[in-house]
Write a structure and sequence with these properties.
Helix 1 links the parallel strand 1 (2-6) and strand 2 (27-33). This protein is an alpha/beta fold. The protein has seven helices and five strands. The chain has a five-stranded parallel sheet with strand order 3-2-1-4-5.
Length: 139
């Protein structure tokens, strides 16, 4: 699978890179960042010898074109602005943040203190807790 990660420089993004580099059926195609276009192993020396990928400006629309799945490792309030039906028609999205975790927009906005920009997508979103939602995740 071709995988991209937006938010690859944060803690969760780094953990995703670490795990996915070891996966035998995954090829990381894009590492997105809003702050730098440095080589990943230069920014994070622990990755030296494991990847020579360069960070790219985060562009979900572009990454969706050649990725089977895009991981979003972003602060809450950002993914709901970026994810659209058109993007979901091209790739799977795994949001490591909170934007698609709760089904109720009012609860989300009260809890996180930000507006949710894609309430129409919440019905199809699945919280990735496999112990509870295994069958939904498969779909």
């Amino acid at each position: 699978m071709n995988i991209s990660i937006i938010g690859a420089t944060g803690y969760v993004g780094q953990e995703l890179v670490r795990l996915l580099l070891k996966h035998p059926k995954v090829r990381i195609t894009h590492l997105g960042s809003t702050s730098t276009t440095e080589r990943y192993d230069k920014l994070f020396p622990a990755f030296a010898g494991f990847t020579d990928l360069k960070l790219e400006p985060s562009d979900l629309k572009a990454f969706a074109e050649d990725s089977d799945c895009v991981f979003l490792s972003l602060p809450h309030g950002i993914a709901s602005k970026e994810v659209t039906k058109e993007i979901l028609a091209k790739t799977k999205i795994i949001d490591m943040g909170a934007d698609f975790r709760l089904k109720d927009v009012k609860t989300y906005e009260a809890w996180y203190g930000v507006k949710h920009y894609s309430p129409g997508l919440l019905d199809k979103a699945v919280y990735g807790l496999s112990e509870l939602y295994r069958d939904d995740i498969k779909k």
